[in-house]
Amino acid sequence: MTQSSTLKSDGPRLDRRSLLLGSVGLGLAAAAGGTIVASKPALAASSLNQVPYYYRFRIGELIGTVVSDGILPLGEPTGAFSGPSKEELQSMLTSNFLSTENAILEQNILVVDAGDQRILFDTGMGTSDLFGPTTGKLNANLEAAGIDAASITAIVCTHGHCDHVWGIMSDAGERIFPNAQIWISEADFDFWTDEAKLSYKDPAWMPAFVEGARRNLMPNQDRMKFFKDGEEFLPGLQAMSTPGHTVGHTSFIVTSGKDSLVVIGDLTHHHVILMEKPLTEFAFDTDPSLSAQTRVRALDMIAAQRLPIIAYHFPWPGIGHVEKVGEGFRYHPAPMVMQELPS
Ligand SMILES: [Zn+2]
Predict the structure, then answer these.
(1) Which strands make up the sheet holding 328-333, listed edge to edge?
(2) Residues less than 5 Å from ion ligand 1, measured at CB
(3) Ligand 1 centroid vs 196 CA: distance in angstroms?
(4) What is the pLDDT of residues 53-71, one digit of tens each?
């Protein structure tokens, strides 16, 4: 007798209708003679705010920890992504079972422990509510992960945007990471701290972005260093210039033995739209055309070399691989490792 015929003759049928009606669990309990009090489901009042919001993984001999600054909702996708028609955008999202109403980006902040260095890649939105109340979680999640802000020795910034550098200083003007050297490209430092842009009218968000960058970067010039394209500026950490999203946007290659990880920052913001159609332009790109060309060139290299990536804005925790598919790419999230095999 097969298992399915057993279910049909003796037990409840696991068909779609009974699943939709939610009757299977109660039916099984009744068949086993159990008692279920179904009036108050235990999780009914619980929220889906998950703890912990950090994730540890290995990069060769190194330990990486992804720590979230919270989600960053962009709203209706046509507001942020241009190139494909509204119908094309909706079709891409629908066929990937994603909302067509609100494009949600994560903020996956990487911490790497490497010898006596503890490196933090980007710092999130700080206390700003420019994108609503869901951001600004970095400090609480670092604490949850057992990472003391004072133990960070280097902050490495992919670029000078709000969701990457506004978590450097507190509202009271204090250094949140008091022992960290700050690394950024000179081009981005110059661009985003340029006082003249405080009076720009177009884009309308420019003065706010520059004001925030100045507030977080200017008080730290005594402990700031600029990396150069291709430079190994910290042991095992190489800068790779990926301009376009901002003038000095930089990706990083972390290497330990045979293993490496490419920290791609905002080379791509969306795991479907900007991968399937990488020439799509993103609202906050300083040079959208250069950004698209850089995205294709860098993702081509990453796919060809089968390098793992961590993407700042991809679905949590943002670690995975890139496959070249036609004129675009496909993101393959890496399985989360919650338990290691005994060695
Ligand atoms: Zn970003």
Answers:
(1) 232-234, 237-241, 250-256, 259-265, 309-311, 319-325, 328-333
(2) 163, 266
(3) 23
(4) 999 999 999 999 999 999 9
CA–CA separation, 47 and 101 (whole Å)? 21
User: Rounded to the nearest whole angstrom, what is the distance from the C-alpha of residue 304 to the centroid of ligand 1?
Assistant: 25
How far is ligand 1, taken at its centre, from the CA of residue 208, in Å?
A: 15
pTM of the entire predicted model: 0.88
CA distance 338 to 317: 13
State the pLDDT at residue 58: 97
What's the 132 CA to ligand 1 centre distance in angstroms? 15
Identify the pLDDT of residue 51. 75
From ligand 1's centre to the CA of 200, what distance in Å? 21
Domain architecture of the chain: domains with CATH = 1-44 (no CATH), 54-333 (3.60.15.10)
